[in-house]
Amino acid sequence: MSGDARGSVSVVIPVFNEEVNVPQLLPRLFAVLDTLDRPYEVICVDDGSRDRSLDLLRELLGRYPERLRIVELSRNFGQHPAILAGFALTTGDVVVTLDADLQNPPEEIPKLLALTDQGFDVVGGVRQTRRDSLFRRAASRLVNRVTMAITGIRMTDYGCMLRAYSREVIDLVNRCEESS
Question: The whole model's pTM is what?
Fold first, then answer.
């Protein structure tokens, strides 16, 4: 843990074919962030969507020009490269990652920030209910166990995108020259 991390917040959202969720997600997210009493920015990284996600993001940019930034990747690179592209542009003292599919409600962000404000460098959410198939949940449990065995870090849900990182952690990630 490092010192008090209270300050500005950056939210990074990888977006891939989320035209159904984007119009709901961003107004909910901005409503939450507006209650925080701290500066914030939202960076949506379109990961080569083939639906109307990018068009909808651009429309929302007109409503939130001071708070929203959009990164358009040339093709689908995958969730983690999209997040890294967003990390490279963040300016916040704390960076929150959030999926665009609304499985992790933006209303949970203040809970993560309360912990980063206490000095935790990384805080992760845990999905209580999932809309995934039985196969997907079983595969996720297997990946969680393997990841725990390899890293030695015990987490309940490695696949949950709702996380908060201190600026120090983001700077370290941004200095890495590999994607693993």
Answer: 0.82
